[in-house]
Amino acid sequence: MNSYKPRIIVKLEIKSNHVVKPIYFEGLRRVGMPHEMAQKYFSDGADELIYIDIVASLYQRGIDYEQIKRASDNIYIPLTVGGGIRTVDDCHRLFDSGADKVCINTHALQSDSTLIDNAAQIFGSQAVVVNIEAKSKSDTWSCYSDNGRIPSSKDVVDWVDEVEGRGAGEIILQSIDRDGSRKGFDFNLISKVIERSHIPVIIGSGAGNISHIIDVVKEFNPHGIALSSVLHYNKLKIPSIIESIRNALT
């Protein structure tokens, strides 16, 4: 029997006091409260949670540590928190507030990439995750930040090399062109990143049915699958996803 099992990770995208779900990183729709949804998905059997304040950097807003504390309360699975992280002190406070890992994007991508180095040296690579928001450009992909709003000069594959070299322990790969669409994952993007990366890659953006998930698991053996729309709108349930993957790999 194949013992491989990808982590089933739920992505909670936060704006103000609500979990929201955009389509193609646009058109936010409220879907629930962070603490309630975190508890629900923990109870449903999620392996991990990713909590990202998707407008903190865009609005230059401070991190809501109290909301994170509430969301992390009585959650006994790893919690990765991102959004608005600019300094090592921000990371310290997030760990004190219940985060197990920090997720970095805007500040490192657009301003000072040594934030990755410094965080990895202090907290260890296993606690530092880099979120890559990829948008296709001909046959390449560019890195974006601030929930897909702000472009950068970084090529996705080059950025994968750089963040790994700087000490990141994991990558969350999101496709701006597929996120929230439920049309399936971008296999070309995933292939390029997994081929280049020597650290774990969590694949997100595009799952709409169980076949999409099974196909990406069989093709890439990813360390984790990040899901949101398909769970938030009750298209699939975590126990059935886990069972379907197990059956497909047996």
Describe the structure.
By secondary structure, the protein is of the alpha/beta class. The chain has a single domain, classed as Aldolase class I (TIM Barrel). The protein contains 10 helices and 12 strands. The chain has an 8-stranded parallel beta barrel with strand order 1-4-5-6-7-10-11-12, surrounded by 6 helices. Strand 2 and strand 3 form a beta hairpin. Helix 1 packs parallel to helix 2 and helix 8 crosses helix 10. The protein is globular.
List the helices and strands and how they pair.
Elements: E1 7-15, E2 18-23, E3 26-32, H1 34-44, E4 48-53, H2 65-72, E5 79-82, H3 88-96, E6 101-104, H4 106-110, H5 114-123, E7 128-137, E8 140-145, E9 150-155, H6 156-165, E10 170-175, H7 187-196, E11 201-203, H8 210-220, E12 224-227, H9 229-232, H10 238-249
Helix pairs in contact: 1-2, 8-10
Primary descriptors:
10 helices, TIM Barrel, 8-stranded parallel β-barrel, globular, 250 residues, 28% strand, alpha/beta
What's the CATH first level?
A: Alpha Beta
Strand order of the largest sheet: 1-4-5-6-7-10-11-12
Measured as a percent range, the helix fraction is 25-40%
What is the average of the pLDDT values?
93
CATH topology-level fold name? TIM Barrel
Q: What would CATH call the homologous superfamily? A: Aldolase class I
List how many beta strands DSSP finds. Answer: 12
CATH architectural arrangement: Alpha-Beta Barrel
Low-confidence stretches: none
Can you tell me the number of structural domains? 1
Please give the largest β-sheet.
Answer: 8 strands, parallel, barrel
Q: What is the H-and-E element order?
A: EEEHEHEHEHHEEEHEHEHEHH
Radius of gyration: 17 Å
